[in-house]
Write a structure and sequence with these properties.
The complex is a heterodimer of chains A (470) and B (297).
Chain A: H1 2-21, H2 26-42, H3 44-64, H4 68-79, E1 97-108, E2 131-134, E3 137-146, E4 149-157, E5 163-172, E6 179-187, H5 208-214, E7 219-228, E8 234-242, E9 259-270, E10 274-295, E11 305-324, E12 334-353, E13 364-384, E14 387-397, E15 402-403, E16 420-431, E17 434-444, E18 451-463
Antiparallel strand pairs in A: 1-2, 1-3, 1-18, 3-4, 4-5, 5-6, 6-7, 7-8, 8-9, 9-10, 10-11, 11-12, 12-13, 13-14, 13-15, 14-16, 16-17, 17-18
Helix pairs in contact in A: 1-3, 3-4
Chain B: H1 2-16, E1 20-24, H2 27-37, E2 41-45, H3 60-67, E3 71-74, H4 84-91, E4 103-105, H5 141-155, H6 160-184, E5 192-195, H7 201-207, E6 210-214, H8 225-234, E7 242-246, H9 252-261, E8 264-268, H10 281-295
Parallel strand pairs in B: 1-2, 1-3, 3-4, 5-6, 5-7, 7-8
Helix pairs in contact in B: 2-5, 3-4, 5-6, 6-10
The chains are: A alpha+beta (470), B alpha/beta (297).
């Protein structure tokens, strides 16, 4: 562009220079005028083009006083004046779309994070990290494979080294009729929070019910089939068959499916300001020889005992989320309220092993059945652009176990304690791609060991920024 | 048996008159589709004029509506990149996937402005395809209408004649209106303005307004007090009369600067429904120019 401006300015200067030099003679002036006219005629097309470009350059250079980058943009526009169509835009514009999530936390805890919630020693305990620590860096790669398929891979880079495959699935895009098929490794569609990646969580950690019943979130290797009803109201039904890899499943090497999930979601808007979604889900798996260590027993064995469980695990859940924003404009202010409830029934054979080679205390196996549940309710409020605050209340019910006579005097059937936790967070997002968070929690999930927890967190997203789910 | 035949006939006639289901991402495209297709389409508009079109959530209701759409009419150029991909995937509607005949992107048919020569998130929320707010220049609707009409014919060839007639009359009315708007807006030519978001390059390009400063430090980032102070000094050399923002934007930064620099804070409808006067495409520009003229005094 700059070259062209110079060229046009140069031509203008050439035209003006002889004019000024020969101003004394009218006749000369006349002949020069004629020459210019001739010049103009022969180069009319060219000059008008240059003038047009000059005008554009002038207009642009004025804007450039405040925004220098606009000059380049407009220059590009001037150069491509003759090509009004631009290439199609899609996620494949970065083919494939690459993204990297960087996270890190500082955790200040008063109690050892390895202690499980009371009554949940046989459940998962993802815990927290203390002090400064790098969170999992998440590398995402997604692209349209061909008109029929789309592929997504999310690799989790652990701070201590090593790469784990968090997600690696293929999704159909052309089956039509509301049918969506997904296969590979994916987060199960049960509940509301389960499908959300850690960087999209509203708090540093998952609710207690997700931590204990799903080891934060349920990932499966398998097949998911979803069907969206052709109705004005959003109604979605889905089912999954999987390996049973994620907790509470127990990985195995045999034919057939190790777990099954069914879920249904319904949702809609109320006016332009309110939207909601509610869902119900069922999960079933068979657990085989699942070992739990350091489980407290009735005898008070120091360091706990080792239990092994084989049996059925059935979980039912309900979830809802409701969002409100004035005029439906979520960029300024919004309120989100969500809650979920899960109940798990387990029944099978439990082997109690105090680790002492004595006949009376040696491994004893008998029937075991228990119903455990948990729920949370949370609300996040964006009170001004970029700033959000949220509160969450968690509660668990360890249930009362029905025990066979052989282990009834060994295994604790009722802990008589309801684990709970209250959490507050504040986060600031300077842009769509960065977030800084402060979180305080009063953790009452362990009998007699209340904990005050402080977390600082950053979440940064590099590269392609995929669209977020509801 | 008779009943069955009657039912079958009713069903057949029902499908014969079934309108095309159109999912419009923004209100301006819903209005344009309405003008071009009349009662041959049933319209659903995904966003309101008071919503930031960059920041819409992939709500369940949008997925349900996209499921049954025959045609999607959107701006494109990455404006909807934060929510539309999820809607398209979850809708499992093969007809409206990118690249298909049921997926219409208006930005493909107009000359894009502010196409960045280099991409860096350090520059804020810049769009690789150029500035997507194409609906602020009335002239852009001519090529878009032409392409959209062709697309409607492609999807619903039975009504070819109808669509062609609607397009002809639209073009006639629209070109007349553009002449009128350009005459009305003549006093605005060369006038320096401050904008809240970089949302008006097409309008400025059309009407000759000269943008001298932006309240957002970078596109998509909220104005800070420090940056607003800087804007005050930046605009000093220019006889700025007004600060422009779109109806969906928070009015506080505009009001702040308007108060200090004695400007008129002008909230433009930006799209159909942005003000009570802007009820269709024609009144959208009537009101935009009326508001600009009022603000320039």
């Amino acid at each position: 562009m700059f070259k062209k401006s110079c060229l046009s300015a140069g031509i203008a200067a050439l035209c003006i220079y002889p004019l000024a030099a020969n101003a004394a003679s009218d006749a000369d002036l006349q002949s020069i005028r004629e020459q210019i006219n001739q010049l103009k005629q022969s180069y009319e097309q060219r000059i008008s083009q240059l003038e047009q470009r000059l005008q554009q350059a002038e207009a642009t250079s004025k804007q450039a006083e405040s925004v220098a980058t606009q000059v380049q943009a407009t220059a590009q526009q001037a150069n491509t004046q003759q090509t009004p169509t631009s290439p199609p835009t899609s996620e494949g514009a970065f083919n494939p779309a690459m993204s990297l999530i960087l996270t890190g936390t500082y955790g200040g805890l008063q109690r050892a994070p390895t202690l499980p919630a009371t009554g949940f020693a046989m459940s998962a305990n993802p815990g927290h990290s203390q002090g400064f620590n790098l969170g999992e860096s998440e590398l995402g790669i997604a692209a349209t494979i061909d008109p029929d398929y789309r592929g997504v891979a999310t690799l989790s880079l652990a701070p201590a080294g090593g790469v784990t495959v968090e997600n690696a699935f293929v999704q159909t895009s052309s089956l039509g009729n509301g049918v969506n098929l997904k296969f590979g490794r994916y987060f199960s569609g049960l509940g509301y929070l389960n499908e959300q990646h850690a960087h999209a969580w509203d708090f540093v950690d998952q609710p207690l019910v997700y931590a204990t019943l799903w080891n934060n979130q349920l990932g499966e290797d398998g097949v998911q089939l979803k069907w969206l009803a052709p109705t004005d109201t959003f109604i979605e039904l889905g089912g999954e068959l999987g390996r049973g890899r994620g907790f509470p499943g127990s990985d195995r090497t045999k034919n057939g499916a190790g777990s099954g999930v069914l879920f249904a979601h319904i949702g809609d808007d109320i006016g332009i300001e309110h939207s909601w979604r509610a869902g119900a889900s069922l999960h079933q798996t068979r657990r085989v020889n699942v070992i739990s260590t350091a489980v407290p027993d009735v005898l008070g064995t120091v360091g706990g005992v080792t239990n092994s469980f084989s049996g059925d695990s059935r979980t039912a859940g309900l979830d809802f989320v409701w969002k409100y924003s004035p005029n439906g404009n979520t960029a300024n202010r919004y309120l989100k309220v969500q809650g979920e409830y899960f109940q798990r029934k387990e029944s099978g054979m439990l082997t109690y092993d105090a680790g002492i080679p004595a006949a009376a205390l040696g491994p004893i196996t008998d029937t075991y059945a228990n119903t455990q549940s948990g729920w949370y309710l949370q609300s996040v409020y964006q009170f001004m652009p970029n700033w959000r605050t949220g509160i969450r209340y968690d509660q668990l019910d360890p249930g009362t176990a029905s025990l066979g006579a052989g282990i009834a005097t060994k295994i604790v059937s009722n802990y008589g304690f309801t684990p709970s936790r209250a959490t507050w967070m504040l986060d600031y997002s300077p842009s769509e791609f960065s977030r800084l968070r402060l979180q305080l929690a009063r953790d009452n999930s362990r009998l007699g060991l209340p904990d005050n927890q402080l977390f600082l967190q950053y979440i940064m997203s590099l590269g392609a920024h995929g669209a977020h789910q509801y | 048996m008779n009943k069955f035949i009657i039912l079958a006939l009713l069903f057949a006639s029902g499908t014969a008159h079934a309108a095309l289901s159109v999912f419009a991402c923004e209100p301006e495209w819903a209005s344009l589709t309405q003008l071009l297709a009349g009662d041959k389409v049933s319209l659903y508009t995904a966003t309101g004029a008071l919503q930031d079109p960059h920041r819409v959530e992939a709500r369940p209701s949008l997925i349900a509506k996209a499921r049954r759409a025959n045609l999607l009419v959107c701006t494109g150029a990455e404006l909807e990149t934060g929510w539309l991909p999820v809607i398209l995937r979850e809708s499992a509607n093969a007809a409206i996937q990118p690249g298909g005949t049921g997926n219409f992107e208006a930005a493909k048919y107009v000359q894009m402005l502010e196409v960045p020569t280099h991409l860096d998130r350090g520059d804020g929320d810049v769009h690789a395809m150029g500035n997507p707010h194409i609906q602020t220049d009335a002239r852009n609707f001519i090529p878009v209408a032409d392409a959209l009409s062709k697309r409607l014919i492609q999807i619903d060839p039975a009504n070819t004649l109808y669509y062609q007639q609607r397009l002809t009359s639209f073009n006639l009315l629209w070109r007349t209106a553009i002449n009128r708007w350009e005459k009305q807006a003549a006093p605005l030519k060369g006038m320096p303005v401050v904008v809240q978001h970089r949302g008006f390059p097409y309008m400025n390009n059309w009407l000759g307004l000269k943008q001298v400063a932006e309240l957002e430090p970078k596109p998509g980032m909220e104005p800070s007090a420090a940056h607003l102070g800087q804007v005050l000094t930046e605009m000093q050399p220019y006889p700025v009369k007004m600060v422009l923002r779109a109806a969906y934007q928070d009015g506080r930064p505009s009001e702040w600067i308007a108060q200090r620099a004695h400007l008129n804070a002008v909230a433009l409808p930006y799209t159909v429904g942005g003000t009570s006067q802007a009820v269709d495409l024609f009144t959208l520009f009537d009101d935009t120019i009326a508001k600009l003229l009022a603000g320039s005094k």
